Amino acid sequence: MAGVVGYVGVGVAAYVVFLVAGLPAAVVLQHAELPPEAGWDQARGTVWAGGLEGPWWRGTRLDSLEWRFRPWRLALGEAAVQARLAAPGLELTGDVAFGLWSRRLSLSDLHGEGTGTGVARVLALPVGLEGGFRLDLAGLTVPVEEAPSGEGRLDWRDAAVTAGPSVGLGRVTAVLDDGRLGLEARGGEVEVDGHVELVAGPGYSLELLLVPTATAGQATIGLLESMAPSARRDGRHRLRHQGRFLP
Q: Fewer Cβ in 10 A, N or C end of the chain?
């Protein structure tokens, strides 16, 4: 009996979603409760297939956001869209799904490329970035009460961070395996080894070992000392930090 009720519930939810999907995007978004940090110039199309021109988030303007509804995901109890986000120096495409019952957010087949300037701008980072990024994320699941988990890879070429002085990192790779993100940087002024553990919240626990190379200037060494004052005798700096991805 419980199984029948479950199927009926999914069917009703699917019917409601189909009804909403045919409505103009501008009408639905006009009545939706959205955070005050979000906005756009114009909405076009329908909830099924549409887009936003001139979207912005927390004061950062983007070029466009487009989406297309994925009806087959309703059978999995999810409302999902294939989305494309374009911004100066950044482009992302992938599937975004939200659990109708679990309230779980899922990303899949997410691919993107961008410049350091574009990524820093969209994420509103307090430091500058240089180089080029490539992201290939097979999947990422963010449950309501559990730790996020997924599988994917990020490559950062000709990497550099500008925080006062510009610190070259060479080639940076980040590999996500379940709830652990392994980090490595080689070929720059600073070599990096470490990981990020994803925890419920969603949050993170970061631990890095930063090692200045022979090419590191005094400004770079001074920056490392300010970030992680307790250096080991061999000059290695260990950095630990915990935080949340959302305020």
A: C
| Residues 203 and 153 sit within 8 Å (Cβ to Cβ) | no
Phi and psi at 33, nearest 5°, equal: -90, 100
Could you tell me which of 161, 26, 43, 154 has the C-alpha nearest to residue 92? 154
- Altogether, the residues listed in the chain come to a count of 247
From the number of C-beta atoms within 10 Å of its C-beta (0-12, 13-18, 19+), residue 155 rates as middle
In terms of Cβ atoms closer than 10 Å to its own Cβ (0-12, 13-18, 19+), residue 103 is exposed
Structure tokens that stand for 96 in this block: 């975004």
pTM for the model stands at 0.84
Confidence of residue 52 (pLDDT cuts 50, 70, 90): very high
Q: Angle at the Cα of 57 (from 55 to 61), degrees rounded to 5? A: 55
Helices marked H in the chain — which ranges? 2-21, 25-31, 116-122, 218-227
Whether the bond between 229 and the residue before it is cis, its omega within 30 degrees of 0, is no
